[in-house]
Amino acid sequence: MYFCVYKLHSMKKLFFLLILVGLLACKKTETVKLIKLKGGVFGTTYNITYVADKNHQQSIDSLFYLVNKSLSTYIPTSDISKINKGDSTIVVDEMFKEVFKKSKRIYAETNGFFDPTVGNLVNVWGFGPKKEKKDLDSVQVDSLMKYVGLPKVSLEKGKIKKQFPEIYLDFNSIAKGYGIDVVGRFLESKKINNYLIEIGGEIRARGKKPNNKLWAVAVEDPNQDGTQSYEKVITLDNMSMATSGNYRKYRIGKNGQKYVHTVNPITGFAIESNLLSASVIAPADCADVDAYATAFMAMGLEKTLEFTKKYPQIKVILIYLNSEGEILNYSN
């Protein structure tokens, strides 16, 4: 008799636990939802979508603030602005260190076509914070090339050392991607593994949407007449994607020459190559693909194709002009 009572009591206890677990599971299912955040940052817009039960807007805004405080050339009190003004006492933070070390590696991989020391030239060509908009001749460009070259800058005991005080660091061609990585890591630290982060066209996608489908994005077709269309829609499976193009951000000089925002670090000129747009997709940090996209625009089509053969894990969608002036595309 005692055994039967004990067994009945155990069965009731087990039944109660099953109900409790079921209720908790239902509660969790009900609270998990698709959260969408949007706003402005880094001089552009952001859109963040993730599957979770909590809105992390405040924490993400704080992360954006820290990235800007470290790396923004548009904020006079940022660490990079102080360094560019000649302050050699700044001890840089971990964000700055990571971006600097990435830049060193990618500079080497691209044979100098990605070079954050091109900042002086970006400024005088009219694409920096001051919008100087000068039309330079070869002599003027040569005088500024003295201050270009990432090997002329080093990180020693937490401080940036420059061979010439005039060297101007500009991480804007990697900062959007890095900001995406910072947010992605934060979400993953909160056990959020299904998300899509987009800042100014750069993207990092992880996991899937609530309908169990992969995240889909559109690659823009750079129509030179100013109209907007899309080349193709692709799905991203745990990938980062960045696109660089000179078809919108450019100016026409007094001499009638078209100057683009991608300055070639090898020549110092802001003259467009035969690439109109380079979209880079890889299972890497978004900062990396952001930097590669910038480098490819300076390289031009032929050197970019050579690079992708050497690094086959990097996928590209290239839109370019052929010798007849026709707009064509290539993807691997």
Could you characterize the architecture of this molecule?
The structure is a single chain. This protein is of the alpha+beta class. It has one domain: T-fold (Roll), CATH 3.10.520. The strands form four sheets. It has an eight-stranded antiparallel sheet with strand order 1-2-5-6-9-12-13-14. The chain has a two-stranded antiparallel ribbon with strand order 3-4. Strands 7-8 form a two-stranded antiparallel sheet. The radius of gyration is 25 Å and the shape is globular. It starts with a helix and ends with a strand. The N terminus is likely disordered. GO terms for molecular function: metal ion binding; transferase activity. It is an enzyme of class 2 (transferase). It is found in: Cell inner membrane.
CATH-derived topology: T-fold
What's the arrangement of strands in the largest beta sheet? 1-2-5-6-9-12-13-14
End-to-end separation in angstroms reads 75 Å
The amount of beta strand, in percent, is 25-35%
**Main β-sheet: number of strands, strand sense, barrel status?**
8 strands, antiparallel
Mean pLDDT: 84
Number of helices: 9
Integer count of domains: 1
CATH class: Alpha Beta
What's the name of the CATH homologous superfamily?
ApbE-like domains
Shape: globular
Which structural category do the helix and sheet elements fall into?
Answer: alpha+beta
Number of strands: 14
H and E order: HEEHHHHHEEHEEEEEEEEHHEE
Uncertain segments of ≥5 residues (pLDDT<50)?
1-30
